[in-house]
Amino acid sequence: MGSQIHGTQDFDKTKRAEIKFSDEAIQIVQKIISRYPEGKQKSALLPVLHVAQAEFGGWLSPETMDYVASVLKIKPIEVFEVASFYTMFNLKPVGKCVLEVCQTSSCWLNGAEDIVNYIEKKLDIRVGETSKDGMFTLKVAECLGSCGSAPMLQCGASYHENLTYEKVDAILENYKTEGKLRSYTDLDYKNTL
Ligand code: FES
User: Fold this and answer.
1) Mutate to test the pocket of ligand 1, among 99, 102, 139 (most ligand atoms within 8 A of CB)
2) Which among 38, 63, 95, 99 would be 20 to 30 A from 134, CA to CA?
3) 107 CB less than 6 Å from ligand 1?
4) What mean pLDDT comes out for the span 96-122?
């Protein structure tokens, strides 16, 4: 079944057997699914994938996608098709904090490239890579809708705006001190259901 997701990747049946939502996560997932009519649970796929990504280390492994398919009673390939389409889903392991620096017009004109270079140098990584301590992955993103506060970056549910090198230093230090995985579901997710 897993090979339907990643034909060329090994599918680890042992890992798959270990994947299970926590009690809290399954409650959230069930609430999401209950929004849709019987038999239409596939409509819950996007929000459920966000919960899964937050729950299982910040990325969606083939085993996690297979699990999500079983929860929603759909085919694994249907999960992969959606997960691989949206840039918010990571199909490879990432750092605890994924830094997405906007590189579109307003941010670019206001120094996004310098911010990217600065982070690359500071973390000793290039765009797309993860720092050696596993804390940060650096990505670039298209307009994140905060053009009036350019340059900016997103990390999980948080926006960091009007960036300067000093602000970047403080942001990274803060995340490092917290040391926790940041996800798109961080901001009062349960209250939005
Ligand atoms: S151009 Fe960067 S947020 Fe819109």
Assistant:
1) 102
2) 63
3) yes
4) 98
Q: How far apart are CA 115 and CA 132, in angstroms?
A: 20
Written as six digits, the tokens of 47 are: 């929000």
User: Whole-model pTM?
Assistant: 0.90
Sorted by sequence, the CB contacts under 8 Å of residue 182 that are 6+ apart come out as 96, 97, 98, 155, 156, 157, 158, 175
Composition of the chain by helix, strand, coil, percent to 5: 50, 10, 40
Q: What's the CA gap between 80 and 69, in Å, rounded?
A: 9
Domains of the chain: 2-83 (1.10.10), 97-178 (3.40.30.10)
Cβ(155) – ligand 1 distance below 6 Å? no
Of residues 5 and 150, the one with the higher pLDDT is: 150
For the CA of 150, the closest atom of ligand 1 is 2
- pLDDT tens per residue across span 120-167: 999 999 999 999 999 999 999 999 999 999 999 999 999 999 999 999
List pLDDT tens digits, range 14-64: 999 999 999 999 999 999 999 999 999 999 999 999 999 999 999 999 999
Are 121 and 81 spatial neighbours (Cβ–Cβ below 8 Å)?
no
**How far is Cα 4 from Cα 22, in angstroms, rounded to an integer?**
26
Q: Is 139 helix (H, G, I), strand (E, B) or coil?
A: strand
